[in-house]
Design brief:
With 278 residues, this protein is mainly alpha-helical. The protein has helices at 16-39, 72-88, 96-120, 124-147, 153-184, 194-215, 220-243, 249-277. InterPro entries: TspO/MBR-related_sf, TspO_MBR.
Length: 278
């Protein structure tokens, strides 16, 4: 796998494009914060769980995470703000890793704000298009971060940690969003029923978690962050199906098993990668 390394003694000279990127990413982070506030009910907005007729609430579908799961957004937003500040530091203007990710992080923040706006308008089908695009952007960021090593531990935490949590959570949220859209469209059980389809989707989520872990095995911070965020979301699906409505012990068991896979996979793959590198 190719990688890019830049000697600390010979930093690249910042360009006008670098300076523009630094400023615009900071503005994007502030936009993301404003969108989050709007989506929590501030500035006249509805809470996301109440928007679109409650289609995305914790009891809308068997794949909806319980309400406390969404607290992870606070950590993600703080991480995005930390990334924005970090990349805006003068000494970081020309860092190859930040050049490779800055505009994509900005795109992710704009898409996240757009998703909140679309949901506020009640466009549930449109929200799937937006969140799927967001997931694709975060996947591009994953590839770029894996292929380009961090300059420092601090950069790894701010960049890999934030994007890892973001990607892991959005992966689970996309599944929940699709399930909610199918309910809104009244497609029925598609021949298997809600429980069976939920188990199929959770099995696919486990496979996706393993795929992320294998691909990011040489970057422990992002691998573990993805696994943690996915495990968090899947665990709260299990809680919701155990203690909330709709109750479904089969889905709860499948979600709990998927959560274990999501957190265990990056631990195993990164340990194996370290052992093979010796």
């Amino acid at each position: 796998m190719s990688s890019v390394t830049v000697p600390r003694s010979a930093p690249l000279a910042p360009t006008s494009s670098d300076r523009v990127r630094q400023v615009v990413v900071v503005v994007g982070a502030l936009l993301a914060m404003a969108g989050a506030a709007f989506g929590s009910g501030a500035f006249g907005g509805q809470q996301v769980e109440d928007a679109a007729g409650g289609a995305l609430s914790a009891d809308a579908t068997p794949l909806a995470p319980d309400t406390p799961a969404f607290r992870i957004w606070s950590v993600i937003y703080l991480g995005l703000l930390a990334y924005a500040v970090y990349q805006a530091l003068p000494r970081n203007a020309a860092r190859p890793r930040l050049r490779a990710t800055g505009w994509w992080v900005l795109a992710s923040m704009v898409l996240n704000a757009a998703w909140i706006g679309v949901v506020q308008q009640g466009w549930v089908v449109g929200s799937v298009v937006v969140i799927a695009t967001l997931l694709a952007v975060l996947a591009v960021l994953l590839v770029r971060l894996v292929r380009t090593p961090p300059d420092s531990a601090a950069q790894a935490v701010v960049t890999d940690g934030t994007i890892g949590l973001y990607l892991g959570w959005v992966s689970v949220a996309t599944l929940a969003n699709i399930a909610a859209t199918l309910v809104v469209l009244d497609v029925g059980g598609l021949g298997l029923g809600a429980t069976a389809w939920s188990v199929v989707v959770l099995t696919l989520a486990s496979a996706l978690a393993v795929a992320y872990a294998v691909f990011a095995r040489t970057r422990p911070v992002i691998a573990v962050a993805i696994g943690f965020a996915m495990a968090w979301g899947l665990a709260w699906i299990a809680v919701g199906r155990t203690s909330g409505s709709p109750e479904d012990p089969v889905v709860a068991g499948a979600a709990a098993a998927a959560s274990v896979v999501a957190i265990a996979a990056p631990v195993v793959t990164t340990l194996l990668a370290r052992r093979s590198a010796r």
